[in-house]
From TrEMBL:
UniProt entry keywords in alphabetical sequence: Coated pit, Cytoplasmic vesicle, Membrane
Compartments where located: Cytoplasmic vesicle membrane; Membrane, Coated pit
Alphabetized PROSITE patterns for the sequence: CLATHRIN_LIGHT_CHN_2
Family label: Belongs to the clathrin light chain family.
One Gene Ontology term from the biological process aspect of the record: clathrin-dependent endocytosis
Function: Clathrin is the major protein of the polyhedral coat of coated pits and vesicles.
Any GO CC annotation of this UniProt entry: synaptic vesicle membrane
Protein name as annotated: Clathrin light chain
GO function terms (MF aspect): clathrin heavy chain binding; structural molecule activity
Native organism: Pygoscelis adeliae (Adelie penguin)
Major place of residence: membrane
Superkingdom of this protein's organism: Eukaryota
Topology relative to the membrane: Peripheral membrane protein
Keyword Amino-acid biosynthesis part of the UniProt annotation: no
Length: 153
């Protein structure tokens, strides 16, 4: 048997009952209405959350279907292009020859002050078309700033 100076559980229960009994009717009615209103809001939010989840699942499935369709179309077009390319005579040499011709043509147009234009032609400055795994945005911004304001020696 322990003695305590503070209120015990039985005292707290009696106090709670006394407070509820002495509570005015309007406050008790408001408390019940508030409880019902909160329960209704909770039910509505759970229902809305379930609808959003269903909608998100449907949209995700549609997105996956569109992506798969796009991937299949790309694969088919690549196969057709590859077959057409490799049916040409000397197809294995054509790529190297075209790249070398482009390099030689660009090398002939060397003028002082056109260095950055040549660098810009070799770089892909469109961030969305870049399919690299690395982030090259900082390098891209440095090259653009150097092109606009070249270093003076």
């Amino acid at each position: 048997f322990k003695e305590t100076n503070g209120p015990t559980d039985s005292y707290a229960a009696i106090s709670q009952v006394d407070r509820l009994q002495s509570e005015p009717e309007s406050i008790r009615k408001w408390r019940e209405e508030q409880k019902e209103r909160l329960e209704q809001l909770d039910a509505n939010s759970r229902k809305q959350e379930a609808e959003w989840k269903e909608k998100a699942i449907k949209e995700l499935e549609e997105w996956y279907a569109r992506q798969d369709e796009k991937l299949q179309k790309t694969k088919a077009s690549n196969r057709v292009a590859d077959e057409a390319f490799y049916k040409q005579p000397f197809a294995d040499v054509i790529g190297y020859v075209a790249a070398e011709e482009a390099f030689v043509n660009d090398a002939e147009d060397i003028f002082p002050g056109t260095e950055w234009e040549r660098v810009a032609q070799l770089c892909d400055f469109n961030p969305k078309s870049s399919k690299q795994a690395k982030d090259v945005s900082r390098m891209r911004s440095v090259l653009i700033s150097l092109k606009q304001a070249p270093l003076v020696r």
